Amino acid sequence: QVQLMESGGGLVQPGGSLRLACAASGTIIRINTMGWYRQAPGKERELVAAVTRADTTNYADSVKGRFTISRDNANNRVYLQMNSLKPEDTAVYYCNADILPLLQPQSDYWGQGTQVTVSS
Questions:
Q1: I need a labelling partner for 88 at 20 to 30 A (CA). Which of 39, 46, 49, 51 fits?
Q2: What is the pLDDT of residues 35-77, one digit of tens each?
Q3: Chain centroid to CA 116: how far?
Q4: For residues 69 and 51, what is the distance between their CA atoms, to the nearest angstrom?
Q5: Among residues 103, 99, 102, 85, which one has the least CA distance to residue 12?
Q6: In contact, 46 and 38? CB cutoff 8 Å
Q7: Is 78 buried (19+), middle (13-18) or exposed (0-12) by CB count in 10 A?
Q8: CA gap 17, 86 in Å, rounded
Q9: CB of 63 within 8 A of CB of 49?
């Protein structure tokens, strides 16, 4: 059973930083693209950042220059370094990964979400 688990969320002041982590567990053959999404109250879930196995990255315009996504393939982890945080970054952040498990079809997986609150 493949699972994703996020960590690192919390309450920070505007201008502060947080580092989110997502660990994939289970009998995994390969993880392709990994990414972070977020959903604020009353808003649709949006892509924040994504990274391929070749380390090609893609960011939402709203976070470019402030957030950095990275991955550790050896440990099946993806990170999101968030700097210069703004109140509008407040949301539940979800980890997403395209995973090929052992003896199972390739599929998208989602974490349970971690709350990020930016407030003074």
A1: 51
A2: 999 999 999 999 999 999 999 999 999 999 999 999 999 999 9
A3: 12
A4: 7
A5: 85
A6: yes
A7: buried
A8: 10
A9: yes
